[in-house]
Design brief:
The complex is a heterodimer. Chain A is α+β, with helices and mostly antiparallel strands. Chain A has one domain. Chain A is 19% helix and 46% strand. In chain A, the strands form 2 sheets. Chain A has a 7-stranded mixed beta sheet. The longest helix of chain A is centred in the first third of the chain and has 23 residues. The N terminus of chain A is likely disordered. Chain B is an alpha+beta fold. Chain B has 2 domains: 66 residues, no CATH class; 107 residues, OmpA-like domain (60s Ribosomal Protein L30, Chain: A). A 4-stranded mixed beta sheet of chain B has the order 6-9-7-8. A 3-stranded antiparallel beta sheet of chain B has the order 1-4-5, with no helix packed on it. In chain B, a hairpin with a 7-residue loop joins β4 and β5. β12 of chain A pairs antiparallel with β2 of chain B, so a sheet runs across the interface.
């Protein structure tokens, strides 16, 4: 009985893994709105962030003085960055089958608005946004964050 | 002479010291404002500054990091938020929308109502920036978790194939299976319920 439970669990985990892999094959989010200067920093390189650009799990999104960006993630979380803003994604994991995972980011400067998605609905500590002086724990919600100057 | 040189050096050091003395840093007051959902409900946010924590949970409630290490709560007006953050909020991508697809019984074809949903789906894709589709399969509660997880993924894959046949690029479509975790109609375990054997297609 116990053994069959274990086997069942591992098979389920295997399928969950397959599902998650398929979803993440093309990044964890996409730029949907991009005006002015918008950049994506990945592994020390900086590239432009036009509409349709892929966001990976540890990217940093940067806007210039005239820049605004809107991004939708695979768990349906949505966010926008105002001008002169820097958002570093520290961790993004999402299991499409169980909805388990984490979305942790740091707003280093500027302004951010967020409408949380399936991750924050599943668990109250699945989504956090850090600012230089605070850590926000998101419990299924919409909000605006601004870093002090 | 030596005294004069030493004095000059001393003065130079003093001046340099003055110039490089750091300006007192302004206190970084980071702030967060909670907004109501489109449906009128409001979630909650825990705001931690060091070991101090406050929770805000009502519309337009706000919290700011305080100079003394404790977050301060307050409230903003809807009008002030619109005025100050209108452009930021306007840059949020549109909300994802979902359509439910059923199959004709015992066939791989969509039901008639589902065909109409596919037309709506294509229209929705046409008016979105860089639209993407997630296809999530669901099952009823008959059978074990591992069987239902696999079955729901197969159903989703079948819908993906049908959507690509209708001209949607395969790389814009991701698939997943939720098994029996998210029934449309709640039932006891092992109950056969056709309305739960469905595939949800969402456009974001």
């Amino acid at each position: 009985m116990y053994k069959s439970y274990c086997v069942r669990k591992s098979i389920a985990a295997g399928f969950a893994f397959l599902a998650a892999t398929q979803v993440f094959a093309d990044g964890v989010g996409k730029v949907k709105i991009s005006t002015g200067s918008v950049f994506i920093e990945r592994a020390g390189a900086r590239m432009p962030g036009p509409v349709g650009a892929t966001i990976e799990a540890t990217d940093t999104i940067v806007t210039g003085a005239d820049g605004t960006a809107g991004v939708t993630f695979v768990d349906n979380s949505r966010l926008s960055l105002g001008p002169n803003s820097t958002l570093a994604i520290n961790r993004f994991r999402f299991d499409q089958t169980t909805h388990d995972g984490n979305f942790d980011s740091s707003l280093k400067r500027g302004t951010l608005s967020v409408i949380s998605g399936k991750l924050a609905k599943r668990s109250s500590d699945a989504m956090t946004v850090a600012t230089p002086s605070t850590i926000l724990g998101v419990r299924g919600t919409e909000f605006i964050v601004r870093v002090g100057e | 002479m030596i005294t004069r040189v030493l004095a000059a050096i001393a003065i130079a050091f003093l001046v340099a010291g003055c110039a490089s003395k750091p300006e007192p840093k302004p206190v970084l007051a980071d702030s967060v404002i909670l907004l109501p959902h489109a449906d009128g409900t409001t979630g909650a946010i825990s705001v931690k500054q060091g070991s101090r924590e406050v929770i805000i949970d009502s519309p337009y409630a706000s919290a700011k990091s305080g100079a003394d290490g404790t977050p301060r709560t307050g409230r903003e007006s809807e009008a002030a938020v619109k005025q100050e953050f209108g452009a930021l909020l306007a840059a949020l991508p549109p909300a994802p929308v979902s359509f439910v697809i059923y199959f004709q019984s015992g066939s791989n074809e969509f039901s008639e109502a589902s065909n109409a949903n596919v037309v709506l789906l294509l229209a929705e894709m046409a008016r979105r920036p860089f639209p993407e589709i997630t296809v999530i399969g669901h099952t009823d509660r008959v059978g074990t978790d591992q069987v239902n997880d696999a079955l729901s993924l197969q159903r989703a894959q079948r819908v993906k194939d049908l959507l690509t046949q209708r001209g949607i690029a395969a790389e814009r479509i991701s698939v997943g299976g939720r098994g029996e975790r998210e029934p449309l109609v709640p039932t006891a375990d092992e109950v056969s319920e056709p309305r739960n054997r469905r595939v949800e297609v969402s456009v974001r």
